[in-house]
Amino acid sequence: MKPLTKVNSDKFTLVDFLESPNGDLFGKAELFYAFLDDWKDRGTYSYHRELTSSCGTRAKIRDRGTGKERDFIVLASNNYLGLNTRPEVIEAGRRALEKYGSGMCGSRFLSGTYDLVTRLEERLAEFEHRESAVVFTTGYQANVGTISALLRPRDVAVIDRLCHASIVDGCRLSGAPFRTFRHNNAEDLERLLSRLAPRYRGKFVIVDGVFSMDGDLAQLPEIMEVARRYKARVMVDEAHGTGVVGPNGRGCAEYYGLYRDVDISLGTFSKTLAGTGGFIAASKDVTDYVRHYGRSYMFSASPTPVVVATVLAALELMMREPELRQKLWQNIRYFHGRLKTLGFEVFPDPPQSAIMTVVVGPDVTVRRLSKSLYQKGLFVSTVAYPSVPRDQGKLRISLSAAHSRSDLDEALGILSDVGKEFRLI
């Protein structure tokens, strides 16, 4: 069905459709539909690509216009150690499917706590050197459930301005006030805590270990020092650091030698661990409290046995094969260096994780560049407003240990061509 209204998508962003022009609840949806239709017609809509294969270093994508499958090099996946297609991981999932069936058909509180998920929590606690761990069905739920369980209206959360949306939503669900401090700015954190500490009981400082949009690390030593001075508890979301950052892959806190000092470590399964879900690791009193007060844990279905089994297998491989992390970092340093040699403006510099970004600029340029990259067979994420400030768009590149040197060189060739086409280099 074609919309009745025509909208030039180049002149609008998602933010322009938050409110209905006529008061009708669905009025904004009707206008957005016209905007989206034009965006897709121009071939610059880069989201919801339909994959018809596993998403490794290469993938097949069904073209939205022709319906035909095409082969792509993938620089858009968070499959950092390449574990999602490992035979051991796939076999573990197959065995779990045969033993437990396709799902537990209940919440963890009722019929969904099975031995496999208990074993995963034990192994995660061991890996994180914590007393206990809690597994959630999604990483988003891990943040939302933990934060909303612990905060009360007389408490306050102070979070980095670039924290993941699930952290923001957890603060909102809690009903407690929260404030944001300037990105990685411990002085601004102290300014806020000095003003807020006398007015609130509990203080909760929350940061990403690796910031998901740019790939830079939290300045954790300075942040921890300020938080402790004001008797604030600290949680670090290590979603993009687990398996990548630190001597043993425990993330940003381990990188700085602080992983035993952080109060709560949070991680996800949808990146390095090649599944879906999330977890927290902390003292047993905290994890037991979250189990009984975290709404996203209590009122959600248990994670499926297939997912839990594959995550367990991936966790064992990650711990047993540190050479995977070494190979990943070889790829990171090589690719980052070649991008700079080509003339791209790359952030962070030097690289701090498996994520790096290339500055593009105007939102319209980002959309047109995404179309060119797609036509040339490179699957890479493009980021524009409102994910970043208006006209400060970028490419977000994610690398894997599974990328071969030929994969990377082919991708660099495409990026070089597109960079010249759009005068980025």
Structure description:
This protein has 425 residues and is α/β, with parallel strands linked by helices. The chain has two domains: 39-74 and 323-421, Aspartate Aminotransferase, domain 1 (Alpha-Beta Complex); 85-320, 3-Layer(aba) Sandwich (Aspartate Aminotransferase, domain 2), CATH 3.40.640.10. The protein is built from 14 helices and 15 strands. It has helices at residues 27-41, 87-100, 115-128, 139-150, 165-174, 186-196, 220-229, 252-255, 284-293, 295-298, 305-320, 322-342, 363-375, 405-421; strands at 50-51, 58-62, 69-74, 132-136, 156-160, 178-181, 203-208, 233-237, 264-268, 278-282, 346-347, 355-361, 378-379, 381-383, 393-398. The strands form three sheets. It has a seven-stranded mixed β-sheet with strand order 4-10-9-8-7-5-6, with helices on both faces. Strands 1-2-3-13 form a four-stranded mixed β-sheet. Helix 5 links the parallel strand 5 and strand 6 (178-181). It is globular and about 55 Å long. It starts with 26 loop residues before the first helix and ends with a helix.
CATH class of the largest domain: Alpha Beta
CATH domain topology of the largest domain: Aspartate Aminotransferase, domain 2
Rg computed from alpha carbons, rounded to a whole number of angstroms: 22 Å
Compute the separation of the termini in Å: 41 Å
H/E topology pattern: HEEEHHEHEHEHEHEHEEHHHHEEHEEEH
Tally of structural domains: 2
Strand content bin: 15-25%
Strand order, largest beta sheet? 4-10-9-8-7-5-6
Number of strand elements: 15
Structural class: alpha/beta
Taken from the alpha-carbon principal axes, the silhouette is: globular
- Return the CATH architecture of the largest domain: 3-Layer(aba) Sandwich
Task: Let me know the largest β-sheet.
Answer: 7 strands, mixed
Poorly predicted sequence stretches spanning 5 or more consecutive residues: none
